Amino acid sequence: MIQKTLNTSAFGKNDIRGIFPSQVNSELFFYTALGFVKWTRLQYSKLNVVKTTSDLTFCVCMDARLHSPELKKSLTEGILATSANVVDIGLVPTPLGYFSEFANVNCGSDEQIDGALIITASHNPSEYNGLKMTFNKKSLNEEQIQEVKKYTLEAYEKQNFSTGAIAAGNLYTCDIIPLYIEKISNNFAAIGEGIKIVVDSANATGGVVAPELYRNLGCEVIELFSEPDGNFPNHHPNPSDEKTLDVLKKTVVENKADCGIAFDGDSDRIGVVDSNGNSLSGDKLLLIFATDLIKELVPRGETPVIVSEVKCSQVLYDTINNCGGKAIMHKTGHGYIKSKMRETKALLAGEMSGHIFFKDRYYGFDDAIYAGCRLIEIIAKNKKINSDFKISDLLKPFDEVHLSKEVRLHCENKYKAAVLKELEAKINEEMFGSKIIEIITIDGLRIIFKDGFALIRQSNTEPVFTMRFEAKTKEKCTHYEKTLIKATESIINLISTSGELV
Q: 17, 123, 269, 334: which is the annotated catalytic residue?
């Protein structure tokens, strides 16, 4: 029996994401395909481009989760039912889905790739799945995702097609991995000669590409957990979670490697461990890439724009600006960051989570495998100057501050906005015992003090607040952390108990 309403709760700000099968399932993906095809046709109409549905071709791929093949089947059936075409590139990292639009992959179709539909839940636990969508070489933003949601519901209500509908479009398959490896290898040549790295793919998608690519660059590569397995038997694929890096750290130190590289579930986020077994936060990694770029471009009279997000250290922004670059703070989320990059013509961007976006010598999307190539290049350049070089040599500016780990505080999604509103009203200098210079509200609340900051923001993908703190001393940093957590917990308890959304 057809339900009266399709569950579309998984439609979020940056993508579709939820628990399988209660929120994300075959039915949702079939009708999302119908909604996305209609949305795409309307975009071409706005651009005064004449295209029939049968002229449209979409790239479809998936991550290693156990239910991804089922979802890919339904998504493909939905696209084909409209008479649009599909190029199936199989189980690959998300960046290869993005790459398909730039690489002119057609595999028999005479048309360009009009968009990519990437089945993944990124770093989320194995019970989650989702969908990332692109059009015209850009990820859909929050407003566009809501438009697709609208057309998805309309398609469900009209029931013009149903799951198992006869395909009217053409289905092609393509092995894009060799093309990607060849393209990237040609851009770097043998930069990795003499460099030893450990690569942890977490039984997700990175293992089908990264080890071979890095060997092509000349690196000695030690592999960890390269075989895709949606059960993620060794550890969860989330390099932002420190405990997932334990084996990588140990392997790097034992083998005296130059660094360790880890990937999340769909390989658009990178984690890095230095030669001493210390993990690098996303802002430290971005500073390494930023200073390398600045050294290259500033002597030419250029001022490279670099975008990052509210969770990052003030050290990152100050160092970039002091070295001749221009640092811009923006909202967390790959869709927001990509939009800001286009708006500001930025050459580089990054997030604490390990999303790194290179427009310099690349396409501008987040690709952890490519970011690994740039890191290898930086290590190689510095080792030619100093054979004893270590990544930590590039992070001296961070020695002047103490940074907290990311704090995750549970809060039901329905209460988040009300909690932030109430918290902003209650924040004062007496609470923290420090003068408040400014409160930045582009994404949650970043409370700026003379000697640091306290941050709270809503997670885009989970029912939590993410929090981070920085100060000149560990004691002051801890004080900011305890103060904000206590105030937030009090408001969460008050609002959740009363049920009142202020």
A: 17
